[in-house]
Amino acid sequence: DGAAQQQGAPEDLYTRPATPFVAEFIGDPPMALVEGAALGQSAAQIGIRVEKIERAHVDDADLVAHVEACEFLGGETRVLLGHPRARGLGLILPGRRELAEGTALGLALPDEHRVLFPAPGGQKDPQQNYGATDRQTAPRDGRKAPSQQTEEVSR
């Protein structure tokens, strides 16, 4: 419909997306989205950047997903994961890793890196962390975007 979804500095769009659309549009890989109920949350969806997802023992995991593919990128391997109540799940592992398709992996999704999205038209629960604080320690390239630089994301 052409309406602006969010306006701000690139780092703000990346770390604090206002909507699931912005979360998936900004970044490579895009932010993973999980149904809130799958993690025991009242939010409609929970977003988390793939680089913040950690491997966990299946018995202690926040979520168990299955390997769909592995992509070796030199210094790291991106593991694409599937789960019926999530999209965009992945895991970044150091070096070269070969994991068989269908292998179950436990995932930890640290609370401090989750971004909660209410249902469309729903009220934000004041007890939830919708006003996400900066969740990334530094940009991948080590540079900080100038504060006056803004980007607008439209559908």
Q: How would you characterize the overall build of this protein?
A:
With about 160 residues, the chain is mainly β. The chain is built from two helices and eleven strands; from the N terminus they run βααββββββββββ. The protein has helices spanning about 10-15, 20-25, and strands spanning about 5-10, 30-35, 45-50, 55, 65-70, 75-80, 85, 90-95, 105-110, 115, 150-155. Strands 4-9-5-6-8 form a five-stranded antiparallel beta sheet, with no helix packed on it. Strands 7-2-3-10 form a four-stranded antiparallel beta sheet. A two-stranded antiparallel sheet has the order 1-11. β5 (about 65-70) and β6 form a beta hairpin. The termini are close together. The model is unreliable at about 125-150 (pLDDT under 50).
Gyration radius from CA atoms, angstroms: 16 Å
Class by alpha and beta content: mainly beta
H/E element order: EHHEEEEEEEEEE
Structural shape: globular
> Given the structure, what is the number of helices?
2
User: Percent range for helical residues?
Assistant: under 10%
What portion of residues belong to β-strands?
25-35%
Average pLDDT for all residues: 81
Spans of at least 5 consecutive residues whose pLDDT stays below 50 are: 123-151
